[in-house]
Write a structure and sequence with these properties.
Elements (H helix, E strand, L loop, with lengths): L6 E6 L11 H11 L5 E7 L6 E6 L20 H7 L8 E5 L1 H12 L8 E6 L7 H11 L7 E7 L2 E6 L4 E5 H6 L6 H5 L10 E4 L12 E5 L2 H12 L3 E4 L3 H27 L4 H12 L7 H4 L27 H10 L8 H4 L7 H16 L17 H11 L12
Parallel strand pairs: 2-4, 4-5, 5-9
Antiparallel strand pairs: 1-10, 1-11, 2-3, 6-7, 7-8, 9-10
Helix pairs in contact: 1-7
């Protein structure tokens, strides 16, 4: 029997599943669906081409086979879909594959009673970062001198972004080289420190698979009792085979994670320092935010925006007839979200005005973490704003238009 902290090499015993590294993830999810451990699986499969990953809800175990494989050009965050389309897993058991930002969003939504984590089984996928679809196509045409339409597979491996074409051409360029030219991974991915999502029930990937098992097995770390139960069940049912990881593989996995975390911290320092401090930073944010067209894509796609009645729609706070909106629109978002930002990048990725919202939000989150010690998305500890009475505060806003939480502070 396995338990939290145990690590394995695992691979599918099915000849039908052709995974990127042994097919263990799809096999485990297929087992969970077949045994009614979950009612539905939320994951990703290729759409029109490699630049078009599509989120899918799957109830037929056989359909999961079409989801095997890695895709690095996604532009979505899956947990918000559980809230929006599956009633927050309140009456359905949901299996889900999650990157670092996904699993952090799961936790933050759960804290806000938007997702029932008791009904969620999560399989974490190691993530070195993703590339926007439009950015990937432009990068491949410019740097690789390859027609993006000819690419049939892409992968990030050994520090390179590698593409393969329909005629068998295979070319890779170092991620560092691409990013020095403003290409490569999304900016928020470059800042990310959550490379192995241990908040999930299982953390899986190819990092650390060494020797004869390289490319043929998945490295699985058991991260919860629920994860151990499902994993053991899959082994007992003969769905997957397992063995102990190679000691050299353990060392390699640790080194990869450490290097990538250090890179994330270094990039944070670089990107945040470019914003300046104090008034200089505020001025830069105000200037770029003046391009805002109030389309609300940042709000609609943020996992932390959960209010039924958004404060940015209150006419006594934000003039609803003005475009671009008054800067109060952005200040409200910063105040409500910055302590819990999970750096998913959705507010920036989907902004038609190309405002670097995620950079601003993440920079503030890091400062608030230093001040209050709250790290979003790592556990169920409450964020700073949770200590205000949200319901009472919202009623006060409705009744008086005042956002004063501590009414008697300045009274003699």
């Amino acid at each position: 029997m396995s338990e939290k902290g145990d690590m394995f090499y695992a691979w599918t015993k099915s000849t039908d599943i052709k995974g990127e590294c042994g097919g263990a993830v799809i096999s485990i999810l297929k087992y969970a669906l077949e045994k009614k451990i979950v009612d539905v699986v939320l994951t990703v499969r290729k759409g029109y081409d490699v630049y078009d990953p599509q989120p899918v809800f799957i109830t037929d175990p056989e359909e999961l086979i079409s989801c095997a494989g890695s895709l690095h050009c996604g532009t979505f965050l899956l947990p918000k879909l559980i809230k929006k389309y599956l009633n927050g897993a309140k009456d359905l058991k949901v299996g889900i594959t999650v990157k670092g930002c996904d699993v952090k969003a799961l936790y933050e939504l759960a804290k806000r009673q938007q997702i029932n984590m008791d009904n969620v089984f999560s399989v974490g996928l190691n993530c070195g970062g993703s590339v926007s679809p439009t950015g990937a196509r432009a990068m491949i045409a410019e740097k690789y001198d390859i027609n993006p339409d000819d690419v049939v597979k892409e992968e990030i491996d050994k520090g390179q972004f590698i593409v393969m074409t329909k005629d068998g051409q295979h070319k890779g360029i170092k991620i560092d080289e691409l990013e020095e030219e403003g290409l490569g991974r999304r900016a928020n991915c470059q800042r990310c420190e959550t490379k192995i999502p241990r908040q999930a029930d299982l953390a899986c990937g190819n990092w650390g698979v060494f020797g004869e098992k390289a490319g043929k097995a998945t490295f699985v770390e058991v991260c919860s009792a629920k994860g151990a139960s499902v994993f053991d069940g899959a082994v007992s049912a003969g769905v997957i085979d397992v063995c102990a990881p190679d000691p050299k593989g353990l060392e390699i996995r640790g080194k990869i994670e450490n290097v990538m975390v250090k890179m994330g911290k270094k990039t944070q320092k670089s990107q945040f320092s470019a914003l300046g401090d104090g008034k200089e930073r505020l001025t830069k944010i105000m200037q770029s935010s003046s391009r805002c067209i109030a389309c609300r894509a940042c709000i609609d796609n943020c996992p932390i925006c959960y209010c039924v009645e958004c404060s940015t729609l209150k006419p006594h706070l934000v003039d609803q007839t003005q475009t671009p909106p008054d800067f109060m629109f952005h200040l409200i978002r910063f105040a409500h979200i910055a302590d819990s930002c999970v750096n998913c990048g959705q507010c920036q990725e989907l902004c038609p005005a190309e405002i670097p919202n995620a950079l601003y939000m993440h920079a503030q989150q890091v400062e608030l973490e230093k001040m209050f010690g709250h790290t979003p998305g790592c556990d169920m500890s409450l964020p700073v704003l949770a200590f205000a009475e949200e319901r009472d505060e919202r009623q006060r806003l409705n009744d008086t238009g005042s956002d004063m939480i501590f009414e008697n502070v300045f009274k003699e």
